[in-house]
Amino acid sequence: MSQKVSDSKRDVVPALNRREFARWIWRQLTSMRTALVLLLLLAVAALPGSLVPQTGVDARAVEAFKSRHPDLSPVLEVLGVFNVFGSPWFSAIYLLLMVSLIGCIVPRSMVYLRAVRARPPKAPRRFERMPASGRFETDASVEDVLAAGRRAIGRGRIDVVTEPDGQSGEVRAERGHLRELGNLVFHISVVVVLVGVAAGALLGYRGAVIVTEGDRFSNVLTQYDDFSSGASFDANDLPPFSLELDDLTAEFQLEGPQRGAPRLFEAEGTYREGLDGPEQDYAIRVNHPLSVGSTDVFLVGQGYSPVITVTDPEGNVVFDEAVPFLPSDGTYTSSGVVKIPDAPEQLGLTGFFLPTAVSPGEGQASISAFPGAANPYLAMQAFTGDLGLDDGTAQSVFVLDTSDMTQVMNDAGDPFRIELQPGQETTLPDGTVVAFSELRQFARFQVSSSPLAVLPLGGVIAGLVGISLSLFIRPRRTWVRARREDSRTVVEVAALDRVPRDELPDDLDELLERLRDALDDRQTP
Amino acid sequence: MTLADYANFSNYAVASATVVLALAFLAHVAELVFVRREAVQPVGQPVGQPVPVGAGEGSALGQDEESEPRSAVLTRIATALVVVSSLVLVAGVVTRALAAERVPWGNMYEFGVTGTAIALVVYLALAARIEVTWLGSIVTGFGLVVLGLASTTYVPAGPLVPALHSYWLVIHVAAVMIAGALFLIGTASSILYIVKERAEKRGSAGAILDRFPTIAAMDRLAYRVIAVGFVMWTFGALISGPIWAQYAWGRYWGWDPKEVWAFITWVVYAGYLHARATAGWRGRRAAIIALIGFATFLFSYYGVNIFVPGLHSYAK
Known about the structure:
The complex is a heterodimer. Chain A is an alpha+beta fold. Chain A has helices at 8-11, 18-29, 32-46, 48-51, 59-68, 72-79, 88-117, 142-153, 177-203, 454-472, 504-523; strands spanning 132-138, 157-162, 168-175, 205-212, 216-218, 226-229, 241-252, 262-273, 279-285, 290-292, 295-311, 317-322, 326-327, 334-340, 347-354, 357-358, 367-368, 377-385, 405-407, 417-420, 425-427, 433-449, 476-485, 488-497.
């Protein structure tokens, strides 16, 4: 950010004309102080984004939060607290910060370009005013002293200037230009990262899909359970590919204190790039996505899909599908919904699935004790009536709207309970047979494309190099002046650090010593 | 040794290191008590000059070894105890790694223990080059608290969940721990800066504060370690983190609570670096920003892991 500290006396002069006012605003905005305040403000503005669930991160958590806080939520909604990082006030802060940043980079780059071309400055008149200085006398000539001085300083940009009479001269040296270059590179890279992230978000897409073992997924919009894309992305541009899930492996710790902790998740099968590409094998694990062209496929979750077969009282199979049940905890207690529109009267089933059911005691509901499928158990209730599928409004496959349905009861007038293990079936009071014919697993894939990711990546790496240079390079000016006095040469040395450092006096002593040694060597053959 | 032997050894080593670190902390506290006493009855060393470690060897200026002030002896004892404690703690970390057959930073317990070990090693590495033992009481005291909190999240050594099966775990977490160690030292220096600056302004700086370096030196030390820490943090949290997130979750940045806090910490420390170059913010205000930065770092470790559900919650 700009190092210029604005001249406060001039800033408050009243009655500025429009142009002066604009310049005043610009100077305020690009001042270091404003940048600092904006930075701290940005940190504060990000806070609610971690404390309140965010729509873009976890939409379900937002719904849960809203139902927990019915009074507070409408206010938060208006303030954009559920979408902090897309809210106008957050954008305002970082856009101002961007402007401030650019308003600082441009003039400083100009100054830097001039400084790079400039020669080292003249020696100050009085060396004793410099933070470190020293002097000695020698028999060597001015010319020799200056040559030795140049060698002793070594690195950096060095000019040797001798007066025409040859009786005096000076060495001017400056090093550490990389510090400011690093500083500029760092701040430019921040802009590159922000632009890259924004552009990537505009062009990218991300979708999630649940695929059960034996099923195939094609990369078209209708197949996704969840899909979001940037404003500049056209869903017709989804690159064509398809994949089939043959086998999902989920391994869990079997014993010890970490019993039930996940150990390995792997999805295996075949995929096809393009519409008629060759069939290839894949194995996707966590941290090891599959790359198809510009798209990556990640394994982000898994669970169980009981295969449910429903036969109507006439003996017609009206439903035979694997239905994914979504896990809600570490032991994979899962819930799901089955919608059977083809039954004589529309039928809906809702309930839960336990991979390893154990009964905590007589008369108590079973719970899941382990995420692996050691004792699979499916418990559901049945509803008949209108599923609400026919009016054309979109609805979630994981929610059963029972407002136009009536619950199926048993003879005692209690809700009819379907309790099944794989291979078992049960008959509803009207004669419909519900069977749990097989247990399969599903994989939840995330399909995403992060175009231009190389821009922010390159940006942060350049930024890291830049900030390292700007923090650890030490700019220093050094002068050696030699003057003939009587038959001796007076040598004076001084140094100035642009960023004060402790070791300057030591370094200067060392330089003096090197210089003396070099001149002594010359005199004693 | 079997895996179980390694795990047992690690537990004993961590417990022993905690005890030794507690003794080091007590030695540092006692040192300050003696400084105050010596100020009333001056012995040997002139009051008001920092006493470097090992000052007894050459600087006794012709006086007997016995006349070395107690406080200086205690400083050396405390530093020796920190050396012992960190050696034992490093042994505990290494055996933990052997017991779990992986890097020893896969959960909160291990992060606390390994983080403390790294902080102590960084502190000692600095102490070998420059005079930083005046920070000893804060560094050892903080180390004790972290080890104590780590023991409450103890889990037996074991394999990792699939999400952590990545070599980015090694890079990402190691960089973050080193950054944390440097931030801790910068924070300790900033705390003492604020205390001493305030006392000097009121003219109430006593013997203890006189013993510390000048506030300018404190500010400089804080700046240097935080600058290095900032670079490590940039690499650990904002470069290796997003790269790993791209492999694990399919997006490099998604405003997960941990990411939000990593970002906040980065922004606050960036603010600190700018504050030191801004008129009106240098000195005390910059030091306060440094403290806020460390508080956000601590929250992103403890607060986010414990209170805020998110993708990083396996770190519990």
